[in-house]
Design goal:
The chain is an all-alpha fold and 229 residues long. The protein is built from 13 helices and no strands. The chain is globular, with a radius of gyration of 18 Å. It starts with a helix and ends with a helix.
């Protein structure tokens, strides 16, 4: 039975279908609950983790098909350029604040991770794996690998940063009384990359466009900052 399960899950169809099915359940629960706390991606993550643990399926088997979804990260990020184009007038008007805000956000993200890593005594490999946690996976994963990090840990950090932004962004915006859509979108894109941008798009066109723009700008600043680490 064990050998049959391993052979079945080694098929690319397993990772593809399991991911799609888990995310579909997450979407249904999200629509039914109507709360940002019930995030479909977070639900899908928990379902997939539970499935692999309960059935004892190796992560490598899942990634044979699951890697297909990872391949879509680059085109999914690139297509956000359409959002930026539609709001190019606002971007030109706030170009300096956008550049400064993204630079400061990227610097704070890196310094906080580095400081906490030193505080808790993490080794260099774990530290460099966590440093690019706030930029999009298309930039973070190659950057982590180049610095000697572990991609699975970087991916986990990316999911935590992205999901936390997507889930809690509406509450943070309300608690801190942020009324400017430019500031809201810029913060989401800088701190929570593409997952935060999905929430920014739900909040409004301006938020979505500025968040999309912040992904690229913050990513470039992060690459520059990490050259000094």
């Amino acid at each position: 039975m064990r050998e049959f399960l391993l052979s079945v899950t080694a098929s690319p169809l397993f990772g593809l279908s399991a991911t799609l099915f888990a995310y579909g359940i997450g979407l249904k629960l999200h629509k039914k609950a109507g709360s940002p706390l019930v995030n479909p991606l977070l639900i899908a993550d928990f379902l997939l983790i539970a499935l692999l643990l309960v059935l004892g399926i190796p992560y490598e088997n899942y990634m044979i098909g699951g890697a297909f979804w990872e391949m879509l990260l680059v085109p999914a990020t690139a297509i956000l350029a359409t959002k930026i184009y539609t709001q190019r007038t606002i971007l030109k008007r706030y170009l300096v604040p956008v550049l400064i805000g993204s630079a400061v956000g990227a610097l704070v993200a890196v310094v906080c991770v580095w400081g906490l890593s030193k505080l808790f005594g993490l080794d260099e490999t774990l530290t460099v794996s966590l440093l690019p946690k706030s930029v999009t996976a298309a930039i973070a994963l190659p950057l982590s690998e180049q610095m000697g990090g572990i991609n699975s840990i970087t991916t986990f950090a990316l999911v935590i940063a992205g999901v936390s932004g997507a889930v809690f962004a509406p509450y943070w915006i309300r608690w801190f009384r942020i009324t400017n859509p430019v500031a809201s979108g810029l913060a989401l894109g800088t701190a929570s990359h593409i997952l935060g941008t999905t929430k920014a798009i739900e909040l409004g066109e301006v938020e979505g466009a500025l968040s999309s723009c912040a992904i690229g700008i913050a990513g470039l600043f992060t690459v520059f900052i990490l050259t000094f680490f």
